Amino acid sequence: MRLLVIEDDKDLNRQLTTALQQAGYVVDSAFDGEEGHFLGDTEPYDAVLLDIGLPKLEGISVLEKWRQDGRKMPVLMLTARDRWGDKVQGFDAGADDYVAKPFHMEEVLARLRALMRRAAGHATSEFVCGPVRLDTKAGRVIVDGNPVRLTSHEYRLLAYMMHHTGRIVSRTELVEHLYDQDFDRDSNTIEVFIGRLRKKLGVDIIQTIRGLGYLIAAPVESAINAIKPAK
Ligand code: CA
Questions:
Q1: 61, 34 Cβ separation under 8 angstroms
Q2: Residue 36 is part of which domain span?
Q3: What is the pLDDT of residues 169-227, one digit of tens each?
Q4: Residue 18 pLDDT more than 90?
């Protein structure tokens, strides 16, 4: 999953970026509204952390422009604690959630996970596909009850695929969501990672769709659950 952090406070930007990278995300950072708006407009992000008080272009305006242009990625606002008006404006502009400063990093991480899984249509932090369970909270992968050790690249790849089950994901899309903007984007590396991932998982859940990309079929259980009457 690839994230964008837009925060003009250099220390805070660095802390956020570092914490998110440690949590396994690919992170780009911007330090003013113009740069942030440009990145969010041109690069595909799975979620954005957007400070409201920004130089050059206010956070609210950044968000309004994106939404007007049809950019739908989940946006978590960073607001000052006593500025309730910012939150109202932010939600009206199309924000999905907020955290007030000063915040605990754990809360930011939890809210981002929630935003991304909701964007993927999931209600819990665990993604299940056949024998494979992906626990996005613990950053763990379990196959047939046994934990599987993955590198951060492999984990990111699997997490992205499991957030998008039931549709074909192209190599280009994977490259765009798994690497930051400075990475040498050779889509052949994706094939290598898919190969390693299949080997480590030991089960055949990732299909190659020739000429198009890869597919993890949507789990049948979720379809059954969807038609069960609620208790
Ligand atoms: Ca600020």
A1: no
A2: 2-119
A3: 999 899 888 887 666 666 678 888 999 999 999 998 999 999 999 999 887 654 444 44
A4: yes
> What CATH number did the domain enclosing 10 receive?
3.40.50.2300
Distance 9 CA to ligand 1 centre (A): 6
Ramachandran assignment for 113, one of left (phi > 0), alpha (psi -120 to 50 degrees), beta (any other) = alpha
Decide: 94 and 66 in contact? Cβ < 8 Å: yes
Report the pLDDT value the prediction gives residue 71, as an integer from 0 to 100. Answer: 94
One domain, residues 154 and 136: yes
Domain-located, residue 217: yes
- 203 lies in a domain? yes
The average confidence (pLDDT) of the chain is 90
* Separation of alpha carbons 111 and 98, rounded Å: 8
The alpha carbon of 31 and the centre of ligand 1 are apart by a number of angstroms equal to 9
Span from the CA of 2 to the centroid of ligand 1 (angstroms): 22
- The alpha carbon of 52 and the centre of ligand 1 are apart by a number of angstroms equal to 6
Task: Write down which residue in 69, 87, 119 finishes a domain.
Answer: 119
Threshold 0.85, pTM exceeds: no
**pLDDT at position 59, please?**
96
User: Residue 208 domain-assigned?
Assistant: yes
Distance 3 CA to ligand 1 centre (A): 18
- Please indicate, yes or no, whether residues 221 and 136 belong to a single structural domain of this protein: yes
Q: Which residues pair with 214 in a beta bridge?
A: 169, 208
How many other C-beta atoms can be found within 10 angstroms of the C-beta atom of residue 137? 12
Do 29 and 2 meet the contact criterion of CB atoms below 8 Å apart?
A: no
